[in-house]
Design brief:
Radius of gyration: 23 Å
Number of strands: 0
Number of helices: 14
Distance between the termini: 52 Å
Strand content: under 5%
Length: 290
């Protein structure tokens, strides 16, 4: 198989000429020039043009530049909304894990590998934490514990604030089954589901944090869905599955109702968005509200 050569760099005007040459409708070149000066061709066209081109990699003349920008703007707004919901989960999960673990094993119990499933993962965790402490050495609460306490160690209820969501997910995964079960019971879910959901949501959180695409993309880290969802054919690959997980972690939260309403407004505002490409069924609101 012959490998492709890299395309040469194009200035903004050349990018516009190229888009017109491959069949994209551009009614306002000044607008296109402004957008392409703010959002890279690769980030905009290559990502949000997916599924809108024919087999010959050209547009058929019916797709407009503004339509692709609309998909980009929808994704940006949806991503910001989702990020705020994930933040709520991340904060309360830190609290609940820290409260349980500190109560059962003491505030320095994280140092003892016997309090975990895997010694190997525990050592990786300690290495990661030592790096985080060094990186945050000037943080007031880190300095306080290091300088004002006899052993200079940081209690778990404070240490957990240095965790990334990914580290928090790994920590939960390496907890003993009884401990995982105790935390999961607070949410009213089974711990195997919670473990899967946390890992998945942490993955999606990183996409949000790095301004990535959630529209029309298969997610590499998928969650374990309840049978009631999988039997309906709802895909764990698409971002709607993320919302199904979140729904069970923040029941009766008024912010969740606001989130659902705002997503519906986004669909109304950006009419070219295809909900199916995000895994949304026709009754998506009812499923998320039930």
């Amino acid at each position: 198989m012959q490998l492709k050569g890299h395309q040469p760099s194009m200035n903004i005007d050349a990018q516009i000429d190229n888009l017109k040459a491959i069949g994209l409708k551009i009614d306002d070149e000044d607008y296109a020039r402004q957008v392409l000066n703010d959002i890279s061709y690769f980030r905009l066209i290559k990502a949000y043009g997916l599924g809108l081109k024919g087999k010959n990699a050209n547009f058929d003349g019916s797709v407009s530049f503004k339509q692709i920008v609309e998909l980009y703007l929808f994704n940006a707004n949806f991503r910001q909304l989702l990020f705020s919901m994930i933040e709520r989960i991340e904060v309360n999960l830190r609290c609940r894990i820290a409260n349980h673990f500190s109560h059962v094993y003491g505030v320095l119990g994280y140092e003892n590998s016997e309090n975990f499933n895997s010694v190997e993962y525990h050592q990786e965790f300690l290495d990661d934490i030592n790096n985080e402490i060094a990186r945050n050495n000037s943080a007031p609460f880190v300095k306080n514990f290091k300088n004002n306490y006899a052993d200079g160690k940081i209690p778990f209820y404070a240490l957990v604030e240095l965790f990334s969501f990914g580290t928090l997910s790994k920590f939960y995964k390496n907890m003993k089954p009884l401990d995982k079960k105790a935390v999961a019971q607070i949410y009213g879910v089974g711990y195997t589901y919670l473990e899967s959901w946390i890992e998945h949501i942490a993955f999606v959180r990183n996409i949000c944090a790095h301004y990535g695409r959630l529209y029309n993309i298969n997610l590499a880290k998928t969650p374990k869905l309840y049978k009631q969802y999988s039997e309906r054919g709802l895909s764990s690959l698409r971002v709607y599955a993320t919302l199904l997980c979140i729904k069970h972690l923040i029941p009766n939260d008024r912010h969740w109702s606001d989130f659902i309403d705002t997503v519906e407004l986004l669909f109304e505002k950006y009419s070219h968005v295809n909900k199916e490409l995000m895994g949304f069924p026709e009754d998506w609101q009812q499923l998320l509200s039930a």
